[in-house]
Design brief:
Blueprint (H helix, E strand, L loop, with lengths): L8 E4 L2 E4 L5 H4 L9 H14 L4 E7 L11 H5 L3 E7 L6 H12 L7 E2 L8 H21 L7 E7 L5 H9 L17 E6 L2 E5 L11 H9 L10 H18 L7 H7 L9 H12 L4 H13 L21
Parallel strand pairs: 3-4, 3-6, 4-5, 6-8
Antiparallel strand pairs: 1-2, 7-8
Helix pairs in contact: 7-8, 8-10, 8-11, 10-11
InterPro entries: GTP-bd, GTP-bd_ortho_bundle_sf, GTP-bd_ribosome_bgen, GTPase_MTG1, P-loop_NTPase
Pfam families: MMR_HSR1 (PF01926)
Protein name: G domain-containing protein
């Protein structure tokens, strides 16, 4: 037998289950190609901006730490100070956060700072990490006979990983524009988070080269790219299949108990994500498939389905994973 989108089925415990691989989930679905003009412009200006910066704060989404890692960031950072933070720590399981922290730190590197920009958790620790990197910068200045000055830092990351919300927390007041919509921060501005630290709020950055479709779909699932770039039903269907795969391979990262309880439908009883959406539409939304797909994405993003992390590191190979 085969599913509606061409993935093979196997019989497990008397019922059909989709045989999933991370790339095959997106192989037959519409391509996501998103690179808006203001992001392209921001990336072209990045080298100029970084010439004014002493410390880079890299912000990733804790639910998809790999997909929100920019492939060029290490090159851009160069010899500058680097602080890595994982936002939305409240949305990912503690075990997953611990394993990712271990993988990112490697044998002897610093662990990422875990933050929740909305609620403020971890923000004080992040501020201390930025200040510490700033001290290293000024110590180097002193050794070169240059007077210390307030350190300039930049927060870099994908469009909706929470940069502006985090800056608002660091500043302690509403300063930068913050809205749960990718790309809302369009220009550059400096904000002071400490007498010794100025922070640059920059637009999110997307690689100039097309990212893999697996990465693009993960970004769409987590609302880290604009909704105009993708088909909601396709992304929702891919999310369902991704969650099934994740629970099977990493049950400490994803558990579907709340999803089953919330809607009364077991995704493993469906041959593919599209079938699950259709079933949900019939049971809950009088056949409205679009509404069912939108609800799946919204509930996942809001944490209504529980704490989940869609990606896991290879700890045997990890050594300062980026």
């Amino acid at each position: 037998a085969s599913s509606a989108v061409g993935r093979p089925l196997v019989e497990v415990a008397g019922r059909s289950r989709v045989v999933l691989a991370s790339e095959s989930i997106t192989a037959t679905r519409p391509v996501i190609d998103w690179y808006p003009g203001h992001i392209a412009k921001a990336e072209r200006l990045m080298s100029e901006v970084l010439s004014m910066v002493d410390v880079v704060v890299e912000l990733r989404d804790a639910r998809i730490p790999s997909s929100t890692a920019h492939p060029m960031l290490t090159t851009w950072i160069g010899s500058r100070g680097h602080v890595l933070a994982l936002n939305r720590m409240d949305s990912a399981p503690e075990f997953a956060l611990a394993q990712w922290s271990q993988a990112i730190a490697g044998a002897d590197g610093p662990k990422p700072v875990l933050v929740d920009a909305k609620k403020g958790a971890g923000v004080d620790e992040l501020r201390r990490a930025i200040l510490q990197e700033g001290k290293y910068v000024n110590e180097r200045r002193k050794r070169r006979g240059i007077n210390p000055r307030p350190v300039r830092a930049a927060i870099l990351g994908y469009p909706n990983v929470g940069k502006s919300a985090l800056i608002n927390r660091l500043v302690g007041r509403r300063k930068a524009k913050s809205e749960n919509r990718p790309g809302v921060t369009r220009g550059f501005c400096w904000v002071r988070i400490d007498p010794q630290v100025q922070l640059l709020d920059s637009p999110g950055i997307i690689p100039a080269k097309q990212v893999s479709q697996r990465t693009a779909y993960h970004l769409a699932m987590c609302d880290d790219i604009g909704s105009a770039a993708y088909d909601t039903r396709s992304v929702a269907a891919a999310l369902v299949e991704t969650l099934v795969l994740a629970e099977r391979e990493r049950p400490s990262y994803v558990r579907l108990g709340k999803m089953r309880e919330r809607w009364g439908i077991d995704p493993e009883d469906c041959s593919c994500g599209e079938e699950y959406i259709n079933a949900l539409a019939e049971v809950r939304f009088t056949g409205d498939v679009q509404r069912a797909a939108t609800t799946i994405l919204k509930d996942f993003r809001m944490g209504m389905l529980g704490k989940m992390c869609l990606e896991w590191p290879n700890l045997e190979e990890a050594d300062g994973f980026t």
